[in-house]
């Protein structure tokens, strides 16, 4: 099972690929919209890429709850363990 | 009421001959071909395996994250628009952006996006990009150009197949003459060198099949022509009211004197063999520009290298200009860059403006033996244009019977 840091790091690569945010800026306390300037359509792309990368399902209804990078990492960890 | 005079104050292009206006113009003057045999895996089953791809990949020029949100067609449009905008010097001119319009055409729209997302859909609907619609919609190029420049007058996308680029210039001219804008960023783009268009145009018997000799494939007016060569690219012109351009001391390339549109009302794909619709478009462009056939010294012909189309246009030019066509040099850039579909009229308008500005007609290549039925003064080498006030026509015709002619003149 991937560690929190491994998930954060992989997610950072996805966010970089899609939105061009430097990977070192994608830290657990950062808000996708307020800090990283990831818009709603890019967020959909990030979610789908994360689903494929981590082999989890992230329901559309859940996306609005993933405000920070930490929220997303925690969701992925729970989904992988569940 | 006198007409508002409109001039060209900026040019941009990305074509099979170069990633900007200077390299494209140099290639045209040198008679260079941008054609090549495609080697991609997807081309192996196709009857037609040749095309004229852009010389510089747009993704090498546009920032990576921006590029991935744009269809290839919009990428090409953006490259050309950035160059034209910088060339115009308008950014720091204090232009009111509510007086800045955009008219960027495409013949097909975001076909790369449409097809790649259809492939994604077959695998998994969640793989369809949330950006697919804004990328594939035909107005995507015009919209992204307006976003880039902050243009807030009308943003338009004429769609008239291969006449689209010229129709955008026609539309932009009207916006300024109607007082709706002071400046319009006008042109067209197309990035559709893909299996589907090659197969579909091929099935229409519209494309040259000279797979073994791609540089000789596009040969407008030559007796052995067998169809057009599919190209890609974009051209953008900055149209500006003369008063506005003069007030800011802008560099002016030429005057956009008039534009004429007509429809054949004849057939969805075949040109009217009598040339009647094309003749009316040219005459409208002349009359709107207060020009007479005697003023025309250079004709950038549509001349795609199809057997019927080239003859119909020659007939139309003769009908429109009569004996005055004797002193008009005819040139066919498609012999070098291929057919850019929705980008064709725009790139060739850029070439026409430069021909007037530099007083030289680029050559038409591959005219080894001029077809007897072509009654035009075809330049097979560079030809100097005379001094004094002269004018030029640029023709574009599209499937559906669309005819669009633009008249430019020296200033």
TrEMBL record, chain A:
One of its GO terms (biological process) is lipid A biosynthetic process. PROSITE patterns: CARRIER, EAL. It comes from the Bacteria. One of its GO terms (cellular component) is cytosol. The keyword Metal-binding does not apply. 4'-phosphopantetheine is transferred from CoA to a specific serine of apo-ACP by AcpS. This modification is essential for activity because fatty acids are bound in thioester linkage to the sulfhydryl of the prosthetic group. Pathway: Lipid metabolism; fatty acid biosynthesis. Gene3D superfamilies: ACP-like. It is found in: Cytoplasm. The modification O-(pantetheine 4'-phosphoryl)serine is found at residue 40. InterPro entries: ACP, ACP-like_sf, EAL_dom, PP-bd_ACP. Belongs to the acyl carrier protein (ACP) family. This is Acyl carrier protein.
Automatic annotation (TrEMBL), chain B:
SMART domains: PKS_KS. It catalyses: (9Z)-hexadecenoyl-[ACP] + malonyl-[ACP] + H(+) = 3-oxo-(11Z)-octadecenoyl-[ACP] + holo-[ACP] + CO2; a fatty acyl-[ACP] + malonyl-[ACP] + H(+) = a 3-oxoacyl-[ACP] + holo-[ACP] + CO2. Pfam families: ketoacyl-synt, Ketoacyl-synt_C. Pathway: Lipid metabolism; fatty acid biosynthesis. InterPro entries: 3-oxoacyl-ACP_synth-2 (IPR017568), Beta-ketoacyl_synthase (IPR000794), Ketoacyl_synth_C (IPR014031), Ketoacyl_synth_N (IPR014030), PKS_Beta-ketoAc_synthase_dom (IPR020841), Thiolase-like (IPR016039). CDD domains: KAS_I_II (cd00834). The keyword Transmembrane helix does not apply. Keywords: Acyltransferase, Fatty acid biosynthesis, Fatty acid metabolism, Lipid biosynthesis, Lipid metabolism, Transferase. Residues 3-410 form the Ketosynthase family 3 (KS3) domain. Its EC number is 2.3.1.179. Belongs to the thiolase-like superfamily. Beta-ketoacyl-ACP synthases family. Involved in the type II fatty acid elongation cycle. Catalyzes the elongation of a wide range of acyl-ACP by the addition of two carbons from malonyl-ACP to an acyl acceptor. Can efficiently catalyze the conversion of palmitoleoyl-ACP (cis-hexadec-9-enoyl-ACP) to cis-vaccenoyl-ACP (cis-octadec-11-enoyl-ACP), an essential step in the thermal regulation of fatty acid composition. PANTHER family: 3-OXOACYL-[ACYL-CARRIER-PROTEIN] SYNTHASE, MITOCHONDRIAL, POLYKETIDE SYNTHASE-RELATED. This is 3-oxoacyl-[acyl-carrier-protein] synthase 2. It comes from Kribbella pratensis. The lineage of its organism: Bacteria, Bacillati, Actinomycetota, Actinomycetes, Propionibacteriales.
């Amino acid at each position: 099972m991937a560690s929190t840091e491994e998930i954060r790091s992989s997610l950072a690569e996805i966010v970089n690929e899609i939105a061009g945010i430097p990977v070192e800026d994608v830290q657990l306390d950062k808000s996708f919209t307020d800090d990283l300037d990831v818009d709603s359509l890019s967020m959909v792309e990030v979610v789908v890429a994360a689903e494929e990368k981590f082999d989890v399902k992230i329901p559309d209804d859940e996306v609005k709850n993933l405000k920070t990078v930490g929220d997303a990492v925690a969701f992925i960890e729970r989904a992988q363990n569940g | 009421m006198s007409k508002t005079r409109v001039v060209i104050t900026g040019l941009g292009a990305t074509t099979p001959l170069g990633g900007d206006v200077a390299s494209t113009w140099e290639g045209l003057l040198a008679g260079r071909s941008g054609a090549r045999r495609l080697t991609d895996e997807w081309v192996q089953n196709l009857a037609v395996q040749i095309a004229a791809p852009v010389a510089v990949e747009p993704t090498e020029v546009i920032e990576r994250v921006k590029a991935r949100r744009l269809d290839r067609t919009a990428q090409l449009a953006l490259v050309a628009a950035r160059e034209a905008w910088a060339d115009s010097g308008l950014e720091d001119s204090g232009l009111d952006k509510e007086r800045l319009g955009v008219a960027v055409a495409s013949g097909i729209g975001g076909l790369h996006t449409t097809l790649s997302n259809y492939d994604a859909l077959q695998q998994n609907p969640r793989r369809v990009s949330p950006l697919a619609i804004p990328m594939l919609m035909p107005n995507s190029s015009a919209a992204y150009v307006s976003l880039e420049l902050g243009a807030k007058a009308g943003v338009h996308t004429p769609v008239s197949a291969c006449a689209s680029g010229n129709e955008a210039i026609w539309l932009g001219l009207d916006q300024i003459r109607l007082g709706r804008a002071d400046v319009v960023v006008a042109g067209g783009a197309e990035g559709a060198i893909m299996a589907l268009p090659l197969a579909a145009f091929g099935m229409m018997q519209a494309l040259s099949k000279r797979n073994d000799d791609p540089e000789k494939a596009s040969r407008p007016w030559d007796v052995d022509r067998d169809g057009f060569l599919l190209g890609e690219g974009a051209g953008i012109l900055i149209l500006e009211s003369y008063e506005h351009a003069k007030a800011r001391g802008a560099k002016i390339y030429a005057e956009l004197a008039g534009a004429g549109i007509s429809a054949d009302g004849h057939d969805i794909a075949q040109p009217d063999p009598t040339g009647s619709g094309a003749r009316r478009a040219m005459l409208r462009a002349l009359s709107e520009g207060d020009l007479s056939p005697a003023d025309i010294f250079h004709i950038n012909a549509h001349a795609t290298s199809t057997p019927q189309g080239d003859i119909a246009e020659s007939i139309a030019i003769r009908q429109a200009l009569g004996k005055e066509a004797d002193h008009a040099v005819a040139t066919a850039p498609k012999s070098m860059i291929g057919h850019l579909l929705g980008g064709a009229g725009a790139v060739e308008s850029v070439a026409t403006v430069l021909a007037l500005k530099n007083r030289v007609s680029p050559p038409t290549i591959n005219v080894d033996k001029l077809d007897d039925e072509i009654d035009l003064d075809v330049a097979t080498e560079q030809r100097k244009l005379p001094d004094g006030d002269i004018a030029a026509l640029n023709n574009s015709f599209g499937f559906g019977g669309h005819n669009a002619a633009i008249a430019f003149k020296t200033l």
